[in-house]
Design a protein that fits this description.
By secondary structure, the chain is mainly alpha-helical. It has one domain. Helix content is 77%, strand content 0%. It is built from seven helices and no strands. It is elongated. It comes from Hydrogenophaga bisanensis. Keywords: Membrane, Transmembrane, Transmembrane helix.
């Protein structure tokens, strides 16, 4: 399978993919910063917004594995693990969005890290190793935003 590399300037989609990926960090960083600037009810609203966004992103990360599974179905043995793992980020995020905000953001930050650690193994098996650098950067900023946001509460 010819997988585009984030470092491959010839592939036209990599720039768009990178821009979209990094733009997805704007709500993480912006909401985490707002938590340090606000107090009272607005702070509670922003903490719920950050937790909800983290939960949505975790569901998206699981969906990526369903896409990988569908694309590679029948090509290799053992790729059914993508379908199995694909439901886990949503299931792990679900209790996180129900917790009190200070605990929720810590839990969701940890789940983001766990997802990256699983992806480090599964992306390699799927031939997606070149995307791990960007995936690491996105996870680092997203999880730190959750931890810093929790620290403001």
């Amino acid at each position: 399978m010819n997988t585009p590399s984030p470092e491959d300037p010839v592939h036209p989609d990599t720039t768009l993919i990178q821009r979209l990926g990094y733009a997805g960090l704007i709500p993480f960083v912006g909401l985490a910063l707002l938590l340090w600037l606000l107090q009272g009810e607005p702070q509670v609203f922003v903490s719920v917004a950050l937790a909800a966004y983290a939960g949505l992103i975790l569901s998206f990360l699981g969906g990526i594995h369903w896409g990988i599974g569908w694309l590679q179905a029948g090509r290799r043995d053992g790729l059914g693990v993508h379908f199995l793992w694909g439901v886990m980020p949503s299931l792990l995020a679900w209790p996180g969005v129900l917790m009190p905000p200070y605990a929720s953001l810590v839990w969701l930050g940890l789940v983001l890290i766990v997802c990256y650690l699983v992806d480090r193994r599964l992306f390699v098996r799927a031939g997606l190793t070149p995307w791990l650098t960007m995936r690491f950067r996105l996870t680092t900023v997203a999880s730190l935003s959750c931890f810093l946001g929790a620290g403001a509460l």
